[in-house]
Amino acid sequence: MLKPKVLAGLSGGVDSSVAALQLQQQGYKVSGLFMKNWVDFAEESECTIAEDRLDAKNVASTLGISFYEANFAEDYWDHVFQHFLKEYEAGRTPNPDILCNREIKFKVFLDYALSVGNHFIATGHYARIWRSDDGLYHLLKGKDNNKDQSYFLYTLGQKQLSYTLFPLGDLEKTEVRKIAAKAKFSNYNKKDSTGICFIGERRFKDFLSRYLLNKPGEIRTPKGEIVSYHEGLMYYTLGQRQGLGIGGHKNGNGLPWYVVSKQLATNTLYVAQDKEHPWLQSQRVNANELHWVAGQSPILPFSCTAKTRYRQPDQSCTLTQITSDSIEVIFDTPQRAVTPGQAIVFYKNEECLGGGTITTTDAPGRAL
């Protein structure tokens, strides 16, 4: 009997490396693909692409599997990065990791893998897939609560899940590093990647200013008092504390300042010395660009839980219909710093049902 062929995405990190090893030990015929999705010649010396590629190649050599490379940079620019810039320009805070998963890892990469004769793709995501007796694929949280990545995967549908394997779904991160060390992977203790998907870590303000024009404006308190000036609303997000540059304002009380509102119409940033300021509290949230893993929404109204940011504990809520592609989410208790442009993802116990993009909330001060 022929072994199923799996193309594993090898990023050079420990998670994707152990995912490939797990599949090999389970009897799959595994090969590895290193994807280059970001090209910025002005920063080539600062990038870790060469190091990541070498780590991925070394893992493939240790496993004795074929190693391939592909450049999807044009797709990334057209379908992820351009959207990323437009959202920031519109005053919202996008989540490129979610779009990157939808457009690159589980679309371009999947299509590529199937076109060259593979039966599945595999990644190092901490999530699980379960196929019920009725043939429906379900996306479940990873067993490691601290690493569960289902929040970033809510845009996957039945086709993607039917061709995808998540070998780390039942593992804890500590166990993954132990497996990597035992396998003598050179990257077993490599730091987890952070920053923008496929672009990596860098000074965010400097990076963004290369693509978007700065639009300086006033920083005011909710009472209207000018306390400082900002370089552009795109550099700030709701609830942010660091990098405001306000310091010891003469009328301040010595407590930290937090971003509580961004007003695009007047180009004004509002701040307050209260981490739980009323302007940061939302109980009703509207969302559009909805996606349901099962291919259709549950019957609304529907009670479930939701996250408005990664690693947030599940929050009880009720979903109600507004239009065919928009819903209102009514939380049982107010939520802090719910941010337009970010994802809201819905769960029923361990199952990720789907999600959407936050458009508006009922937080005071959002429309002055």
Task: Describe this protein's structure.
- The structure is a single chain.
- With 368 residues, the chain is α/β, with parallel strands linked by helices.
- It has three domains: 5-182, HUPs (Rossmann fold, 3-Layer(aba) Sandwich); 213-272, Adenine nucleotide alpha hydrolases-like domains (SH3 type barrels), CATH 2.30.30; 281-361, Translation factors (Elongation Factor Tu (Ef-tu), domain 3), CATH 2.40.30.
- Helices cover 23% and strands 29% of the residues.
- It has a six-stranded antiparallel β-barrel. Strands 3-2-1-4-7 form a five-stranded parallel sheet, with helices on both faces.
- The longest helix has 20 residues, at 96-115.
- Number of discrete domains: 3
According to CATH, what is the topology of the largest domain? Rossmann fold
Strand-pairing-aware structural class: alpha/beta
Characterize the biggest β-sheet: 6 strands, antiparallel, barrel
Amino-to-carboxy terminus distance:
67 Å
The CATH superfamily title of the largest domain: HUPs
Task: Tell me what portion of residues adopts beta-strand conformation.
Answer: 25-35%
Radius of gyration over all CA atoms, rounded: 22 Å
Assembly of the depicted chains: single chain
Q: Name the CATH class of the largest domain.
A: Alpha Beta
Nearest-integer average pLDDT: 91
Instruction: Give the SSE order as H and E letters.
Output: EHEHEHHEEEHEHHEEEEEEEEEE
* Helical percentage: 10-25%
Report low-confidence residues grouped into runs of 5 or more.
Answer: none
